[in-house]
Amino acid sequence: MSGVIIIMGVSGCGKSTLGEGLARKNGRIYIEGDELHPPANIAKMSSGQPLNDEDRWPWFDRIISETKKCLATHETVLVGCSALKEIYREYLFQNIDQPCRIIYLHGSFETIFERMQLREHFMPPELLKSQFSTLEEPKFAEDQCLRLPINQPVEDMMKRAEKWMNYRESS
């Protein structure tokens, strides 16, 4: 498959770990969405305030721009981006203008909150509730969206994602 695979889910679910691992192992490029947040978004989240839709649109535009740049030289691009609402995913898909698929990482609030407390990040664990309340789970068919539970070893998640990606590429 050429195109884009968006690795989505709430903060702390493992998007970066999975995306970086898949990119490294499969010779793909990975775009870390968190690195594309405008400074105002980072400041807002760091102060404990959740982002609203107006905060997210410029971020999505930066993700789209970076993705298009990478697609000029890479057949498949992996993008780590929360993409919590259906309207956000639609916006990304429509503006990237390439086939897009999703790997949705999901898990319990308790598991993810625990993980967030163990890491250094600009988004404090206290904002996780706002992410879960914003989250609209994807309703794509299996060929468009792989749902991966995060309560398994990363290696197992990678194997399952690779199998799904390889199956999609051969279809």
Walk me through what this model shows:
- The protein has one domain (3-170): 3-Layer(aba) Sandwich (Rossmann fold).
- It contains seven helices and five strands, in the order βαβααβαβααβα.
- It has helices at residues 15-26, 39-46, 53-71, 86-96, 109-117, 128-134, 154-170, and strands at 3-8, 29-32, 76-80, 100-106, 145-149.
- It has a five-stranded parallel beta sheet with strand order 2-3-1-4-5, with helices on both faces.
- Helix 1 (15-26) packs across helix 7 (154-170) and helix 3 (53-71) runs parallel beside helix 4.
- The termini are close together.
- The mean pLDDT is 89.
Number of strands: 5
Give the tally of structural domains. Answer: 1
Q: Which CATH class is shown?
A: Alpha Beta
Major sheet characteristics: 5 strands, parallel
Strand order of the largest sheet: 2-3-1-4-5
- What is the alpha-carbon Rg in Å? 15 Å
CATH third-level topology: Rossmann fold
What coarse outline follows from CA principal-axis ratios?
globular
Q: Which ranges are low-confidence, i.e. pLDDT below 50, for 5 or more consecutive residues?
A: none
Strand-residue proportion: 15-25%
Under the CATH scheme, the architecture is 3-Layer(aba) Sandwich
Per DSSP, the total helix count is 7
What is the terminal separation in angstroms? 8 Å
Describe, in short, the structure shown.
Helices cover 49% and strands 16% of the residues.
Chart the SSEs and their pairings.
Blueprint: E1 3-8, H1 15-26, E2 29-32, H2 39-46, H3 53-71, E3 76-80, H4 86-96, E4 100-106, H5 109-117, H6 128-134, E5 145-149, H7 154-170
Parallel strand pairs: 1-3, 1-4, 2-3, 4-5
